[in-house]
Each structure stands twice: as C-alpha cells, then as structure tokens.
Amino acid sequence: MKRASLLLAVALLLGGCATVGPPVVDQDAAAQKWRQHYAEVAALTHFALTGRAASGAMGAKADLRWQQFEDGRFEARVSGPFGAGAAAISGTAGLVEIRTKDGVVRTADPEGWMQQQAGWTFPIRGLSWWARGLPAPDAPAVTTFDADGRLATLVQDGWTFQYSEYQDVQGIALPRRFQAASDRITLKLIVDRWDSLPPRAS
Q1: Which structural domain, as residue segments, surrounds residue 82?
Q2: How many domains would you assign to the chain?
Q3: What mean pLDDT, rounded, does the chain reach?
Q4: Could you report the per-residue pLDDT of 99-131, keeping only the tens digit for each?
Q5: Residue 9: its pLDDT value, please?
Q6: Is residue 11 part of a domain?
Q7: Are 130 and 123 in contact (CB under 8 A)?
Q8: 21-25, 109-113, 143-147, 168-172: lowest mean pLDDT where?
Q9: pLDDT higher than 60, residue 134
Q10: Position 202 in a domain
C-alpha cells in the first residue's frame, strides 16, 4: 500500500514537471509594447558593439567588434583566439570589402565567402538590425515577442534568432545573449558591451 502511494506521488510529481513550460505571452498585448520599444531602438542609427560568437557543433569561436555608422556603412573585425583567422569587413549590406592576411576581396555575399573560406559563417548582412533585436526592414519576417514587448524569436532571410537575454543600455533594452541558426550553422552570440550610441532625446 505504501509502495503504491509512493509510486502515485512520484507519477503526479513527474506529470506536473512535464507540463511546466515557459509562460504564455499575450502577443496582442506585447505588440502594443513592441511599437514603443521598436521606435526607441530603431532611433539608434549609429552604435558599436563588442561581443563573441561560438558554435559548439563546429568548434568555431570568434571575437567580434562591429561599428555601425549613421549613413548605413559598417566596419567589423572578426578574429579567433589570439587573433587567428582575423578578418576586417567593411561596407554596406549590399557590398562589402573583406581584408585578411591573404588580401582583399569585394563581395555581395560575405556570409557565403566566410563559409567557403573558414567553414563557418555568421549573419553579416542584417546584423546591424538583428544585433539590436529588430527585424531588417527590407525582407519579410516572422516574429514573436516576450512579455516586455521585445523580440523573443525572429525568422528572416534564412536565419532564425532566439533572444534569451537583454541588457539595459542608456535606458533602452538591447540584446545581451541570442542564438542565430541557419541551414549551415547554429551560433550563440553574446554582446559584452554596447557603446558609441547617439544621445537620447530629453
């Protein structure tokens, strides 16, 4: 009898654990907050970030420094441990120049170039938007929001993003940790520091 009662208690406990999941977010209510959040973040027309990217499956790790300018240009540096495999990337979403120890390459497909040369890649073309937790404005996107009206998931341009942690930067919530997955690679990205942001309007 005692054994039967114990088994029943364990079954109820396991059953309860199995039903526990992330809280359900009212997407309509979150969308109201999203509009305010989007306006604040989209106003950050220039910024810089320092972070890291890693793919456990491929054993790839890289340090990242990204400088975004107000006119749409960017300058980025991607490097492995102790500078191994360093690449300087600059340009716009449509055309970039990649400088490595082997020379200079100009391409409209930097992600494909990195995949071919290094065996892995990361989301370069839309990173100025995706890193801020925003969908790029020039392509269809599927989004969900968290309870605070920030992006929880984003599917766009062959990439699926999952935003797990935000950080307060000058009173604005910007991503701290997120995952980016394509049919080629799954990356975990951490933004250690945001700087060079425009001053907020008073």
Answers
A1: 25-193
A2: 1
A3: 86
A4: 988 899 999 998 888 888 777 788 888 999 999
A5: 44
A6: no
A7: yes
A8: 21-25
A9: yes
A10: no
19 within domain boundaries = no
Q: Which two tokens stand for residue 103?
A: 């020379």
Phi, psi dihedral angles at 39 (to 5 degrees): -60, -40
**Is residue 143 within 8 Å of 154, Cβ to Cβ?**
yes
Residue environment code for 25-36, b if the CB has 16+ CB neighbours within 10 A, otherwise e: eeeeebeeebee
Please identify which residue in the block is written with the tokens 């999203």.
Answer: 34
In a domain, 156, yes or no: yes
Contact partners, residue 44, CB within 8 Å, separation at least 6? 132, 172, 197, 198
Q: Report how far residue 140's alpha carbon sits from residue 124's, in angstroms, rounded to the nearest whole number.
A: 17
Among the listed residues 28, 22, 85, 79, the one whose alpha carbon sits nearest the alpha carbon of residue 51:
79
pLDDT tens, residue by residue, 36-85:
999 999 999 999 999 999 987 777 788 999 999 999 999 999 887 645 57
Write the single-letter amino acid at 49.
Answer: L
CATH of the domain at 33: 2.50.20.10
3-class state of residue 4 by DSSP: helix
φ, ψ for residue 104, nearest 5 deg: -120, 135
